[in-house]
Amino acid sequence: MQRATYIALLFAAIGCTTGETGPGTTGLTFVRLSAGTGYTCALSDDGTAYCWGLNDKGQLGDGTTTGRTKPTKVATSLQFIAITSGTNHSCALTLSGAAYCWGANDFGKLGSGTAGTGQLSPVAVNGNLAFVSIAAAANNTCTTTAQQQVYCWGQIAETNQFGDFLPRTNLDPTLVPGSMVAVVAGSDGGYCSVDAAGLAYCWGLVYVFPASGPAVPPIRAAASTAIHFVTLRRGGEHFCGADVAGQAWCWGKNTFGELGNGGTADVVAPASVSSNLSFQAVATGNAFSCGVAVGGKIYCWGQNNAGQLGTATTTNASTPQAVSTPVLFTRIAAGTDHACALGADGATYCWGSNVNGQLGNGVTSASENKPVPVEGT
């Protein structure tokens, strides 16, 4: 499969003025989604970015630190084609591939050449580079170019001569060894990526002492040389993807059944999800996973304390369970403990924790255990 096809599929599940959309605003049609820790961002069909939920670090990008319970325009006239949400910062790509970030800037994870002071609206990433994918994690950001180069910035781990791990800050995009076509981030702060053949690699950023010395390639061995992924996500210490036939595979931590294989034992290599479903998209939260099956029905599995499985219960599940709604969907994104999806009816729906208004339905609540429509869509 060609590189461009992989990029499109990998990010299918992943929008001016300031101010929250007013009461009664309708007609928003989102085409891209990303979910972070307590907040959600989306791109409308004209490339305008909107965010809602927690905004204590400016991660909504609306020029304030005021939380929002419904879609709010990001304070920029830029139009984007991709968007990503991390723990408390967000980034997006323009049509030309230029990267912009906003929110918290500890460790320089905005890539603007400084660290510490956050940004309440989008700022350009240094380097004048053009990217085709971007992913925001906890304290860093990574990207890929059309030339299959991987660049990262923010905090990385450096080992000194005694083998100790020390923090290191990269304020600008730094080339990371490895040839990859797309990259995704997890709530555990790490990354996964795929190469041109669709092989999956999951990695952290580790460099050797001294800082000026050669880098230890963080992208080492494929998770499996037999599985060619067309969609891949990294959650909280677990990973899920779907291959060219639509079979879902997960591996990693499995405390709550987030691997979907019927058990709760950790798995070190990709294992098939227990179902006869064919998946066209997947999403991974902190300890749960979801997939859009061919035909548009969503199934979720794993931790369900906040209703993040969308099954109208708060019972954990170690195998895929149908989300409680008649709506069919095309794309899905998962945050720490909430999920959002694009409905085939043109509306956007979210479920799970809503303590920060991350479900976008105009209110805050402890949680919603089945999909509720995002206001204005």
What does this protein structure show overall?
By secondary structure, this protein is an all-beta fold. It has a single domain (3-373), classed as Methylamine Dehydrogenase, Chain H (7 Propeller). It is 2% helix and 46% strand. The protein contains one helix and 28 strands. The protein has one helix spanning 3-10, and strands at 30-35, 39-44, 49-53, 68-73, 80-85, 89-94, 99-105, 116-124, 133-136, 140-144, 149-159, 165-179, 182-185, 191-194, 200-203, 206-208, 229-234, 238-243, 248-252, 267-272, 279-284, 288-293, 298-302, 317-322, 329-334, 338-343, 348-354, 365-373. The strands form seven sheets. Strands 9, 10, 11, 12 and 16 form a five-stranded mixed beta sheet that branches. Strands 1-2-3-4 form a four-stranded antiparallel beta sheet, with no helix packed on it. A four-stranded antiparallel beta sheet has the order 5-6-7-8, with no helix packed on it. A hairpin with a 3-residue loop joins strand 17 (229-234) and strand 18 (238-243). The longest helix is centred in the N-terminal third of the chain and has 8 residues, at 3-10. It starts with a helix and ends with a strand. Residues 1-9 and 11-25 have low confidence and may be disordered.
